[in-house]
Design brief:
The strands form three sheets. Strands 4-2-3-1-13 form a five-stranded mixed β-sheet, with helices on one face. It has a four-stranded mixed β-sheet with strand order 5-7-10-9. Strands 6-12-11-8 form a four-stranded mixed β-sheet, with no helix packed on it. The chain has helices at about 1-25, 40-45, 75-90, 100-105, 115-125, 130-140, 150-160, 160-170, 180-185, 190-195; strands at about 50, 60, 65-70, 95-100, 205, 215-220, 225, 230-235, 240-245, 245-250, 255-260, 270-275, 280. The protein contains ten helices and 13 strands. Strand 2 (about 60) and strand 3 form a beta hairpin. About 40% of the residues lie in helices and about 20% in strands.
Length: about 290
């Protein structure tokens, strides 16, 4: 009986989270079938976002000028999801919260409704059902039978981690069986990176194919970007590492913004590079460094 009550509670909270995510997107001028920049959304909602050098996930401070603090030490996709999670606390009117590292919080098995609500909101906000379906269909892929590198590619397009996307499409969107999700989770992002690149690499990898639908790509100095064949960069913020069989492999060299385009197809995006483990307000994350005089 208790388990059934808990399942019903989770279902109700997930429905509330999905509806709130739809409302927030619509009110901010975003559709419900495209990826979005979570930091841009926070700006629209007058919620400041600041990266700090603290070992944690995130903090939401409910003040006259609300602010979200994110750990600059966490991987880029993790920061994006945590920001959406903290924004969930904001839009649902929760009080100030501190979210510890995921590995530590998972030790506590007690169900926390507000945390579940914020987590579900983050999933639906960043990965709306129509957007996820479109991402698979436009590439001619089937979510139910997708390979690890296909899942990784689509996770990149939404700015989230590989495991985050699997969990969302399996347990929130019901587009993937739990057994298939378990199988996919056995493959780690490092192994996918090495398979895609055809060599070992410890550098973060972002795959942006010809179906990438955002006008921007966010990365950090040191990251690798696998872009469509024939991609060219307008300046040396990113430089071509190699013409890879799967596309053009670039590396992010320094903070700044660079336009990348394909002359033959018209594909184009702005790549925004931040300093590695940048600390400061989010709107300044990709400003170019000024040399001391």
């Amino acid at each position: 009986m208790r388990n059934q009550t808990l399942r019903n509670q989770r279902k109700v909270l997930a429905q509330q989270a999905q509806q709130k995510a739809i409302d927030v997107r619509r009110n901010a001028g975003f559709d419900n079938k495209s990826p979005l920049c979570i930091y841009g959304l926070c700006d629209k909602l007058n919620v400041r976002v600041k990266f700090v050098d603290i070992s944690m996930e995130g903090i939401y401070l409910r003040e006259a000028e609300p602010i979200i603090l994110l750990s600059a030490l966490r991987p880029l996709p993790r920061r994006i999801f945590t920001c959406a999670h903290e924004l969930g606390h904001h839009v649902f009117g929760h009080g100030s919260t501190i979210d510890e590292l995921i590995e530590e919080s998972e030790r506590s098995q007690a169900f926390q409704p507000e945390e579940f609500l914020a987590n579900s909101f983050a999933g639906f906000l960043l990965m709306p059902v129509l957007g996820v379906r479109k991402a698979f269909v436009s590439r001619g892929w089937n979510a139910a039978s997708a390979t690890p590198d296909q899942i990784f590619t689509i996770a990149c397009s939404f700015g989230v981690g590989y495991e985050t996307l699997i969990t969302h499409i399996a347990y929130s969107l019901r587009m993937l069986s739990s057994s298939r999700a378990s199988t996919l989770l056995k493959t780690k992002p490092k192994a996918i990176r090495e398979k895609v690149l055809e060599r070992p690499s410890s550098d973060p990898l972002i795959i942006a194919d010809e179906h990438w639908s955002m006008p921007t790509i966010d990365a950090e100095v040191g990251s690798l970007l696998l872009l469509p064949t024939s991609a060219e960069a307008a300046n040396d913020t990113i430089t071509l590492e190699e013409n890879h069989p799967k596309g053009c492999l670039f590396k992010a060299n320094c903070p700044g913004v660079v336009r990348v385009y394909c002359r033959d197809t018209g594909w184009a995006v702005f790549v925004r590079i931040s300093r590695y483990q940048f600390t400061g307000l989010s709107q300044y994350r990709h400003l170019e460094e000024v040399e001391d005089e």
